[in-house]
Amino acid sequence: MRDSRLVLLMLTPGLVLILLFFGFPIVDLVRASLSNWTGVGDREFIGGDNYVALLSDGATQAALGRSVLLGLGTAIGISIIATLLAALVSGGIAGSNVYRIVWFLPAIAPPSAVAVFWALAVQPTSGAVNAALRAVGLGDDHAWLADPHTALWVVIAVAIWQGAGFAFLVILGAMEEIPVSVYEAAALDGTGPVRQFFLITLPLTRPVLSMMLLLEAIWAFNGFTLVWGMTQGGPGDATAILPVQVYKEAFQFGNFGAAAAISVVGGVVLLVVGFVGNWLGSRRAVDE
């Protein structure tokens, strides 16, 4: 009992900070979502009208779909690329010490700077990407960000480029924790490098891979800075994800109640994804 009281006493400052900086804002966000509010003055309580409107709002539903596509596409792309890069470095590829630094550099670049750089790089005629395509005979007039069919995929590609470095270091750390004796025993049994990767490396790093897949999906789902910096949700609404919808509703249309409702819906989606991912990870850990 004495130890429990001591633990509670030690946790109290942290719990108070969590309550102040997370608990109260979340409660206030839910209250705002149940009101009609322009951001100033008194709030008019309207109950669940904002949520009812969301159910029939095609723009918000489409934004949710684009957010899911951005989250899943980015997370899967990052996980595959980061795993392959980590396997190469862990396997002792020539220049691996340099690659540890070079491949991590995009991860430390400010998202706003990354957005501006790539938005310029994919410009028709003058962009570096089109210049490279022109050099190999594929044309230089591709309007990647002006085409509704390609704009979101360009954003996903840039998000993968920026996020792969961090995931690479985390997965590399997990791979280097695998005892060398395991690989030596497999080599004595005649198992080649490729089979070692699929039979040893991937299974033993699966918990870390699952965690990175979940985290990257959540981060990309909320990737407002990159999307806004590259396209501002355009062309039209082709790249308008949920955070972009929240920004437009609140700061362009002055409808903070609807923006809060969209935020709550997005938060609930991420909570469900987080709990499911954590449950699946715990279940696998128990099975193993």
List the SSEs and their pairings:
Elements: H1 2-33, E1 35-36, E2 44-45, H2 49-55, H3 58-90, H4 96-102, H5 105-108, H6 111-121, H7 128-135, H8 151-176, H9 180-188, H10 193-204, H11 206-221, H12 224-230, H13 242-252, H14 256-287
Antiparallel strand pairs: 1-2
Helix pairs in contact: 1-14, 3-8, 3-11, 6-12, 8-11, 11-14, 13-14
Classified by CATH, the class of one domain is Mainly Alpha
What global shape is seen?
flat
Residue-averaged pLDDT: 90
Roughly what percent helix? over 70%
Strand content: under 5%
**Poorly predicted runs:** none
**Largest beta sheet: strand ordering:** 1-2
DSSP summary: helix tally: 14
Number of strands: 2
**CATH superfamily of one domain, called what?**
MetI-like
Biggest sheet, in brief?
2 strands, antiparallel
* CATH topology heading of one domain: MetI-like fold
Helix/strand structural class: mainly alpha
CATH architecture of one domain: Orthogonal Bundle
Give the terminus-to-terminus CA distance: 35 Å
H/E element sequence? HEEHHHHHHHHHHHHH
Describe the fold and architecture.
The protein has helices at residues 2-33, 49-55, 58-90, 96-102, 105-108, 111-121, 128-135, 151-176, 180-188, 193-204, 206-221, 224-230, 242-252, 256-287; strands at residues 35-36, 44-45. With 288 residues, the chain is mainly alpha-helical. The chain has a domain at 68-236: MetI-like (MetI-like fold, Orthogonal Bundle), CATH 1.10.3720. It has a two-stranded antiparallel sheet. It is flat and about 75 Å long. The model has no long low-confidence stretch (mean pLDDT 90).
